[in-house]
Amino acid sequence: MKLLHTADIHLGTKTHGRRDPDTGLNTRLLDVQRSLDAVVQRALDADVDAFLFCGDAYHTADPTPTQQKLFVQSLRPLADAGIPIVLLVGNHDHPVTFGRASSLDIFDHIAGEVYCYRKPASDVQVIETDSGPLQFIPLPWPIRSQILTKDEYRSLSPDELRQFIEERYVNYIQRRTNEILEGEHGVTTDGDKRVLSPDVPTVLAGHVTVQGAELAGSEHATLITSEPKFTVGQLAVPPIDYVALGHVHRPQDRNEEGHPPVVYAGSIERVTFNEHDESKGVRLVDIDPSRDPVTRTTFVETPARPFVAVRVDVRDAEAPTERILDAIRERDVADAIVRVRYHVEEEQVAHVDQSRIRSALEAADTIAAIERTIEPAERKRRTVVTRESSLEDAVRQYVGQHDELTGMEDELVEAALELETELEAEHSGTD
């Protein structure tokens, strides 16, 4: 049985984007759409039996109609080809308020074989494919607001709630796998009973955090400290043949030395320059219970927009502009989002030709920034943030004046620029 496993599309991310003159849409939205279309085409070319999407279709729980339309359009070829589509609700897909529909609930009303899971199912799901039945255990993002609506749980502290969710999910997995091992009945989409079997391909798909997972450069470890976390052993329970995960954006197999694979497919597009050197893609999965190993996976890269970060120190250069241009020529900036950072002495500033630097970047898709760090003649002179300072200059100068922020400069700048981009898009009506 062949599957395509993907996650973390995040339609709506606009960092380093601009308005596309032909469509009026944000260029980063179009980048994500291009990568998603390539993922769907890869699934069609591989003639997969099912398409697994493990959460975070959108960047926010309130996607615009345009973003929803693009997502539906991209997935429609799968439905037209009769390929079952499995969708899990991720933390970015569901609203905080209990009772509100999630951003994926629209798929309940779309033609095609679509299975959308907002919460764990009450039994093992059996999905019919061209290669036979697929036994499926959904583990979407745990929605705390639903738990807290019950009186007996409202007094739980955040730590107690986290432990409660962990225990509940682990017990849920054990119950579902026991159903398969004991040959209990599942229910197919046409209402017929089917006896579950450990010899039938079985997949657990979740939008959760696995202990020890390596985060992508744009992700912050502090954001997952209070999240429920699971060990590989709690997820890789027999007779599960593959654990498909979303939530963490760096692709990885957390069970490389064992069976089954416990895989984060990763995100399909880069978000910030902290991910400039990370691969982006999806997983093709081949499950054959008669083979050893039962499950084999292949990482397939998406046509993610390249992020090129050029950094050069020209403080000892007699011709600083030439040194910067040489550094740019060493990199492939064609169709990339490019950031150039150079370090100069104060007396060199007037000798750097900004126009020549921009000309050298003409082949780039977007010039995210051309930044300079000035080595002042008087090292102890305190920098001043003025109304004329750019947001990036202001943040860097602020960080430079606070020793406790040392080492966080790039991360703070990226966060500030992302917020600025989102605010500008909202005010301009850019999608």
Main sheet?
A: 6 strands, mixed
Gyration radius (Cα, Å) is 24 Å
Overall mean pLDDT = 86
The CATH topology label of the largest domain is Purple Acid Phosphatase, chain A, domain 2
Q: Topology as H/E string?
A: EHEHEEEEHHEEEEEHEEEEEEHEHEHH
Number of domains: 2
Q: How many separate helices?
A: 9
Please give the number of β-strands: 19
Strand content range: 15-25%
- Oligomeric state: single chain
Low-confidence stretches: 96-102
Helix content: 25-40%
Give me the CATH superfamily of the largest domain. Metallo-dependent phosphatases
* Gross morphology: elongated
Structural class: alpha/beta
Provide the spatial order of strands within the biggest beta sheet: 4-3-2-1-15-16
| The CATH class of the largest domain | Alpha Beta
CATH architecture of the largest domain: 4-Layer Sandwich
